[in-house]
Amino acid sequence: MATRYLFDQSLEELNEQIFRLGEMVNKQIKDAMRALEKRDLELANQVITGDLQINELQAAIEEKCTLLIATQQPFAKDLRKIVAHFKISINLERMGDLAVDVAKISLRIGETPLIKPLIDLPRMGELVQEMALQGLMACKNENAEEAQAMAAKDDIVDHLYNQIFSELLLLMIEDPKKTTQAAHLLFAGRHLERMGDYCTNISEEVIYVVTGKRQDLN
Prior knowledge:
By secondary structure, the chain is mostly helical.
């Protein structure tokens, strides 16, 4: 009984670490988008330097997962939980890397006025943050339906990216002088679209924990 209690406690600590990692990543995405909208170069640099903390926490989660498997030899659902938490941490860390890429785009654009008001890009950023939080709650509550609902939002993210692509392509055709910044903004949209895919991966891990079956939601 004592051994099971300690194991459950370790799983709860793992849950807390994953949730903390998700919060850190969401803040990075929020700050990266704000830096892009406001052309706040100082904030962009903060996002870049802040990535180190995300990497450190993800490494700590990876180590904890490995230790639990090696020392506790879990099976069935317990093993699925640990494997899923490990893979979720990797997806979150990759989202953090993409937030850094968005911040670097802000530095490339610099203080130059934007060629168009940013409407769809910020909406994509908000949606990705919502998806990440919803996925983490689904993981905590072991709720496959909530995970499935989260993954469905990726279609909206993809639709917004397609809109951005069309608008910026038209701008480049109409005024070649806008090509460089338009290309930067296109990359920002692509990074956000990839974040949506990583959120969908998180949903797949939650469903795997609950059902024991792999489901391709991308």
